[in-house]
Inverse folding.
């Protein structure tokens, strides 16, 4: 098959399902296409492509068959002990308290595969809500894959679905049948419903399908196959399907930072979870979230020379007479660090516009102030002004050629534009300049995991963890959402222990 034609097929799949076919998977992809053509008795690739691009019932049926072969429905009960514990001990009890008066809960497992995830949620609910029978619980699982949904509806599971389940829990909720098959408890079975939904193509929130106003949406291990713009689009629609204050949980490292202006990240030791908030502040970069552009901490390396340490701020320097040149220089430095502190404080308060306009003034008088330039570069990127952001990055590369930061931000912009190859080489450049630059390691790890290179993804995360161990636990990671170093390290350790990609 010609390279152009394969590209047309990968594009069609990406548009329809969001799935990005990695370079090293192209041979398998081509084989799947050829097999489907054989089954449909089509000899010419272009004709099969036309079938896929059409709107007929035959096209729809073909997409169903093809997507079965392209998606992996790997799932198991109580997947990710940390996230399950967060749901069981914090999030679900909070939602139950909130809904106590109405006694109603609405939960959606998007990309539920064979049903282990929504049934796990049903089990958790019955464990923590003794009078669950008197509640109105809408717990729905949706997926693209019809045969996975059929399996979910059947409620019969083999050993592999229980690989991380406490045997006592299995006894409590399942009945053994011959041939190592287990049937789910009819009450748990009755709590969940299942429906077909393509997260990319279909419309939601959707009242007709009862997909709206959710208290909790879980969409885990689905985004790993999507590119950044697709993830952003799906997260936006999922966010709109939440009620105010509703929670959204994805898999670890699938999205980062603040993926939607209406989602605030809530960082717990077990996992990050997002919450729909009232106000929509400035848009943030959708790509890999690590790069939420509301950087919490001042850029330490470059600022050390200009920003006073905490203790220094508490006891201001003795007044100096502004007459001599030496005194004027000291006074100007103090003034500079005060300005920078003010900018940082505004940024911490979420007043990013004000912080940016002060940073513009600061840069006007100190054109080589790298932290201020980087702040402006992030701010522009978050506002969608990518070319301004890029030229600020180039300015930083000139003034601070050894800094990994501009390359790291440029990599984010490249990801936003779907240029994963370019993003990788920019991140490698950042790591060449600073071999343990944790945000670059983590961003690269996400890309590798998406491309199915679990081994190298793990290695990059281990390097990031080593680098975090050398930082003050209470400090915040520069341009990496509002992660505190120790929380991020804990999160990474859990992720590595869980063996997640
Ligand atoms: C690895 S499974 C994850 C199952 C479960 N969420 C978990 O974490 O255990 C990924 C699922 O996402 C589904 N999926 C992939 N692309 C989808 C799309 N565009 N719309 C809906 N589901 C999709 C696949 O069919 C598959 O069942």
């Amino acid at each position: 098959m010609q390279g152009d034609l394969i590209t047309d097929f990968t594009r069609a799949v990406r548009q329809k399902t969001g799935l990005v076919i990695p370079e090293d998977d192209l041979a398998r992809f081509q084989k799947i296409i050829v097999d489907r053509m054989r089954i449909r008795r089509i000899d010419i690739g272009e004709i099969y492509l036309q079938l896929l691009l059409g709107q007929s019932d035959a096209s729809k049926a073909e997409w169903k068959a093809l997507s079965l072969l392209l998606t992996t429905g790997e799932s198991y009960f109580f997947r990710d002990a940390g996230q399950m514990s967060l749901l069981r001990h914090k999030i679900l009890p909070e939602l139950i308290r909130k809904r106590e008066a109405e006694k109603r809960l609405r939960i959606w497992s998007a990309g539920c595969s064979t049903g282990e995830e929504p049934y796990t949620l049903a089990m958790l609910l019955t464990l923590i809500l003794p009078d669950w029978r008197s509640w109105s619980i809408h717990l729905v699982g949706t997926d693209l894959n019809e045969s996975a949904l059929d399996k979910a509806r059947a409620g019969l599971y083999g050993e592999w679905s229980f690989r991380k389940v406490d045997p006592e829990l299995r006894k409590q909720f399942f009945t053994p049948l011959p041939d190592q098959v287990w049937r789910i408890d009819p009450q748990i079975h009755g709590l969940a419903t299942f429906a077909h939904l393509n997260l990319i193509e279909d419309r939601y929130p959707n009242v007709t399908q009862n997909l709206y106003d959710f208290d909790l949406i879980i969409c885990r291990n689905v985004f790993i196959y999507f590119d950044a713009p697709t993830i952003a689009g799906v997260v936006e629609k999922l966010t709109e399907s939440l009620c105010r204050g509703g929670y959204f949980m994805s898999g670890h490292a699938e999205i980062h930072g603040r993926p939607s202006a209406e989602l605030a990240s809530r960082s717990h030791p077990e996992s990050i979870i997002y919450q729909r908030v009232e106000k929509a502040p400035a848009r943030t970069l959708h790509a890999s979230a690590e790069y939420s552009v509301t950087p919490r901490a001042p850029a330490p390396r470059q600022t050390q020379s200009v920003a006073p340490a905490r203790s220094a701020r508490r006891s201001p320097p003795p007044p100096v007479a502004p007459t001599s040149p030496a005194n004027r220089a000291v006074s100007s430095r103090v003034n500079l660090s005060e300005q920078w502190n003010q900018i940082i404080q505004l940024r911490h308060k979420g007043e990013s516009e004000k912080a940016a306009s002060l940073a513009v003034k600061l840069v006007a008088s100190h054109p080589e102030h790298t932290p201020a330039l980087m702040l402006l570069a992030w701010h522009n990127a978050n506002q969608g002004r990518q070319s301004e952001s890029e030229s600020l990055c180039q300015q930083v590369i000139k003034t601070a050629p050894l800094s990994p930061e501009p390359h790291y931000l440029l990599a984010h912009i490249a990801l936003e534009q779907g240029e994963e190859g370019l993003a990788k080489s920019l991140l490698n450049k950042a790591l060449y300049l600073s071999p343990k630059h944790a945000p670059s390691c983590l961003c690269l790890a996400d890309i590798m995991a998406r491309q199915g290179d679990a081994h190298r993804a793990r290695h990059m995360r281990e390097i990031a963890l080593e680098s975090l161990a050398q930082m003050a636990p209470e400090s915040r990671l520069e341009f990496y959402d509002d992660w505190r170093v120790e929380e991020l390290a804990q999160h990474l350790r859990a992720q590595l222990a869980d063996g997640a990609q």
Observations:
- The radius of gyration is 25 Å.
- The pocket of S-adenosylmethionine is lined by residues 17-18, 71-75, 79, 111-113, 116-117, 143-145, 148, 197-200, 220-222, 225 (CB under 6 Å).
- The longest strand covers residues 242-250.
- Residues 279-323 have pLDDT under 50 and may be disordered.
